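On clarity, I found the account of how folds are encoded harder to follow than it need be. Since the whole study asks how a given chain folds, the encoding of that fold should be made plain. For the editor and my fellow referees, an illustration may be useful. An entry of this sort, consisting of the sequence and the corresponding backbone structure tokens, reads as follows:

:::
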Amino acid sequence: MGNKLLNPKISGSPNPLCLHTARWVVPVSGPPIENGAVATFGGEIVRIGRARELQSSYLAEIRDYEDSILCPALINAHTHLELSPLKGRLSPSGSFVDWVRSLVEARSHIGPEEWMPAIKKAVTEMQKEGIIAVGDVGNSDLIPRLSSKVDSNWPFRGIFFRELVRPLASENETDLDMPGANTIWIRDLHCPLRHSFSGHAPYSVAPSVLKAIKAWDQGHGLPFSIHLAESGEEIEFLQTGMGPIKELLEEKGHWPLGYEIPKTSPVNYLDRLGLLDKDTVCVHCVHVDQDDISILAKSGSSICLCPRSNIFLGVGIPPVEALHASGIPLALGTDSLASNDRLSIFAEMACLSRLAPGLSPAVIFRAGTSGGAEALGISEKWGTLAPGKAAIFLAIASGPIGQRDVSEFLVHEGAKGSANWIIG
């Protein structure tokens, strides 16, 4: 097979024509290729196929990964990196609103010196987990500052969603200031982390503000993200105006709201506001019924599932098989270390497989790769192995496995294998 570079962490220059060969290539955009190869040149993938065929077509340096799987790097479509100092400081209480109270209290006790070390540690761990891009949500400037520093070695592509919490309709809905960002960061597809806005949730942002956020995102060609139907308490509040969420809003001085409670489901409410379309990322969607699923499917919106966070908080399990059966695009996220012990998409895939045994491993792996890339609007370069995509992907040591087991191995054993970055 020529010169061998076994399990390089970052191998070679992005300039030479290289053939990366392995027992299996999983492009996601097509079926697994046994004894496959990925041809790269100038930082891009130029061709994929069987190794023997590509070797007869190209005079290239060969890098053989033997019994490994070459596959796209993973996409964490929803996380909150700025909450990383809260790892291990919160416990589930059985009430989503009580957990929110605990989060706010714990966050107020984080010392200034704790933030960046915890965030940098989380970034490093995510990179080790094979994640190349994020949909990161934050209320502060910590992540924009870190990702914009030349010497920070920031590894992720994707979107930073500046999250707004504005329950009162009297607040200035047109005041959408983006501190720390500029038009290059917002518009440049090649920028590591583009900047967008997100609404926290249907109950914590006034409808006029939600519409203004969506309009801003649309005007800048960016996705809109929102936590949706995460807890039973959210359902109760939007349908009746009562319950723990009302009590929380009263505590924070956000009552009365100044607009009518919609008296419907969160999904139907957003649909009425005109917020659901192919550029909307609905995060969680635990408490949705068949009518909600039909609305989401018709809108073209993506759903980002965060199953391990849902389990930690005890909010329930989304009807994943019904969501997939309806044709809704699925992505995967970890949420934050305030409700998860790992920012690992491999761990989310394994968990999702247990919760939704009717989903094939190939569908689950697609959610963790191309599904996330499509939701974040970065599928031009990421999410699959195909000509024109960025030549940064993973080699996961697997040992000898059969064709039927390739996707299953990635979903159940990917985090246990030796995952290494390839830059072609």
Residues 74-149+195-376 form a domain with the TIM Barrel fold (CATH 3.20.20.140). The chain has two domains: 18-72+384-423, 74-149+195-376. The longest strand covers residues 33-41. The first helix runs from residue 51 to 57.
